[in-house]
Amino acid sequence: MTRVPDEALVLVPGGTLITETPEEGRALAMAIARNTVHTLQPELEVLQAGRPQYAGDAAKLIAAVQVVSLEFQTIAAANHYWR
Amino acid sequence: MTRVPDEALVLVPGGTLITETPEEGRALAMAIARNTVHTLQPELEVLQAGRPQYAGDAAKLIAAVQVVSLEFQTIAAANHYWR
Amino acid sequence: MTRVPDEALVLVPGGTLITETPEEGRALAMAIARNTVHTLQPELEVLQAGRPQYAGDAAKLIAAVQVVSLEFQTIAAANHYWR
Amino acid sequence: MTRVPDEALVLVPGGTLITETPEEGRALAMAIARNTVHTLQPELEVLQAGRPQYAGDAAKLIAAVQVVSLEFQTIAAANHYWR
Amino acid sequence: MTRVPDEALVLVPGGTLITETPEEGRALAMAIARNTVHTLQPELEVLQAGRPQYAGDAAKLIAAVQVVSLEFQTIAAANHYWR
Amino acid sequence: MTRVPDEALVLVPGGTLITETPEEGRALAMAIARNTVHTLQPELEVLQAGRPQYAGDAAKLIAAVQVVSLEFQTIAAANHYWR
What we know:
6 copies of one chain form a homohexamer. Chain A has helices at residues 22-40, 44-55, 58-78. The first copy, chain A, has a domain at 51-83. The N and C termini of chain A lie far apart (46 Å). By secondary structure, chain A is an all-alpha fold. The first copy, chain A, is flat, with a radius of gyration of 14 Å. Chain A binds chain B through residues 21-23, 25-27, 30, 55-59, 61-66, 68-70, 72-73, 76-77, 81-83, and chain B through 10-12, 15-18, 32-33, 36-37, 39-41, 46, 50, 53-54, 57, 59-60, 63-64, 66-67, 70-71, 73-74, 77-78.
């Protein structure tokens, strides 16, 4: 089994919740969610086998977006909503 | 496979969470959720095949609305609830 | 296929999150959730076919209530909890 | 079909989110969740048929508690957490 | 059928959301979640039959933890996060 | 059956929600979620049998990440988002 590279296991990429723009904040939300997946399941082959399993299934895809929504709530609050 | 157009991959369409009205805020919540779906699954054919899969199924439809609810919580807070 | 009427597609009926009472706030939460369903699935026949599918199934009914709970969190905060 | 009684369709029983104690607040959270169920599905026979369906199934029971948790978040905030 | 004892039906054990420590706050979150389960399903035999059903199933176990997470959000806010 | 070690049953490892960095906060979110799992299901053999069950299944893995997202919301707020 191949382990995902170390940078894919950083829990908060960049080390901060503060971003310049909402666009960057949303990208960070996705990166945080993704790297928690990697930390719970660091085997590359299993992750790659699971990708079509969720990306082609509406229910799983919606569940993945929901996680991003929750992460984004945190990041948006951290940035005072970039007001 | 056809990739969704670039504008469908903008994570926060318009680049801001601030809107004039609650109606626009809700529309933004839907757009943000939708474009995260596109980013996780950018293949147009898979998205189009998945549409009847969720839009005709009550459980998946409810799950999709729940994501919009979460995005709207963030956007409403950003706009001080348009008070 | 019949499309739901235009008023069923207003994302935030009344155009505001502010209500006189908690009762009206809860009704608004339900209306917002419902109209997002309509917007994601505007075909009346599909909606009508889906109604018994969820209203007679405990799991789907609970999921629908959960969406209302989330919308109500937003509306209650908007109204300073009608304190 | 028998319709649930009118008082079971009041969306916010008592008309306020403010309670004397956390215990009463939690009871209100349950009442609000329950009456939204009634409003989405007002037929008594369907509700009674659905009760064993969820109360004897761990997954549905947990989902029902989750709705109560969300309602309680709102009510607790409304009451400044009864501090 | 045996009914769970009365103390297992107290919705907010101790009658307050305020605790001395995060550890106690987390234990309270679990107790609140558990007693809401008891209130929705007070029959001891059904609860005992349901226990292996969820504790041995990863999906149900994760759903149970999620409820605790939501209760803990409320309790942590009530305690100003024990800062 | 073997019971998980005592330290795996501490509900809030370290006894505080305050951390130096977002990275540590995210790790704490994972530890809190994990130890609640242990508390609900302290039998090591069942936990070990359940691990492949969730870590190789996209839906369960996403659900696990969602719990971490919720815990992280609490911890991030506790730390004023490490601003």
